[in-house]
Amino acid sequence: MPVRQTNNNAEIVFTCSEAVFYNTELIAEEHSIVRVLSGELKVIQANKTYVFGAGETHLFPRHRLATLITSEKDGLPYQAIIVKLTQDVLRDFYEQKKNQIAIVPKSEHIIPLPQSPLLDSFFSSMLPYFDLEYKLPQELSKLKIYEAVTVLQSLNKDIDNILSDFSEPHKINLVEFMERNYMFNIPIEKFGYLTGRSLTTFKRDFKKAFSTTPQKWLTEKRLERAYYQLTKERRKPIDVFYEVGFENLSHFSYAFKKQFGQSPTELTTARK
Fold first, then answer.
1. CA-CA 20 to 30 A from 25: which of 31, 66, 173, 247?
2. Which residue, 192, 241, 200, is CA-closest to 219?
3. Helical H runs in the chain?
């Protein structure tokens, strides 16, 4: 198994990648705090890339798209603790604070958190939980989420505005969203949800906007991005295919050759 997870409950997870290199797409249904214990985590969003190493922590806001690439570093596998700040618990936490929250612009990006003894203490306190032979009591899990939010409040003055937003995606500009997020390999249904549309409405609006089907357009856009990275940025096919939205190298190579008349390897070999 490439990834091992210890999950005492739905909110607190210890994850360990036993593979040297592991990729996945993420669209979080809940806000999540991630502390990297060892190895390295690369997070690629539409217009920004982050790299987190051991001891670093970040908040991943819900409903944000990202490609995650984990790898070993300094001979150690990727290990991390993930704490999901569930909507039900956050609603309880903010129930009496509705009039105390300032309105500021919402963050579209991951929020790196500064080094802090409070964060260190918080995550250290959870390590023994993963050795339990029984499920962590739900009330204790809730208390740990309350503690996490309180720590975040001390580190980021705008955090309440983000965590207390319980709205669901509303209908947004489809063209702008797709042009910004086409490289993420998620189901068409998820693209529809994130633009505030049912699958039927998404396909109808997409056809009207782009005069083609979502899958055909996505493939062409991903291949165009790959071609640019291979020719202008002089990257290797093995480093490109996943970042542009393909699940495996063979499918990428087949689609690329069908589109451009030569495989990615033939293209990069010819440029030398």
1. 173
2. 241
3. 87-94, 117-126, 138-155, 159-163, 174-181, 188-194, 199-210, 214-231, 237-240, 249-260, 264-270
pTM: 0.74
Q: 3-163 maps to which CATH number?
A: 2.60.120.810
Kindly state the tokens that stand for 158: 């705008």
Residue 166: how many other CB atoms lie within 10 Å: 11
CA within 13 Å, CB half, 39:
22
Rg (the chain; Cα; Å)? 21
Domain with CATH 2.60.120.810 in the chain: 3-163
- In the chain, list all ranges with CATH 1.10.10.60: 174-270
Beta-carbon contacts of 255 under 8 Å, excluding residues fewer than 6 positions away, are: 219, 223, 246
Consecutive 10-residue averages of pLDDT for the chain (272 residues): 48 71 67 94 87 95 86 91 92 75 60 95 90 80 93 92 85 92 90 92 96 96 94 90 88 94 86 60
* Integer CA distances (angstroms), 268 to 112, 145, 175, 235, in order: 36, 49, 32, 8
The hierarchical CATH code for the domain 174-270 is 1.10.10.60
Write phi, then psi, for 47 (nearest 5 degrees).
Answer: -135, 20
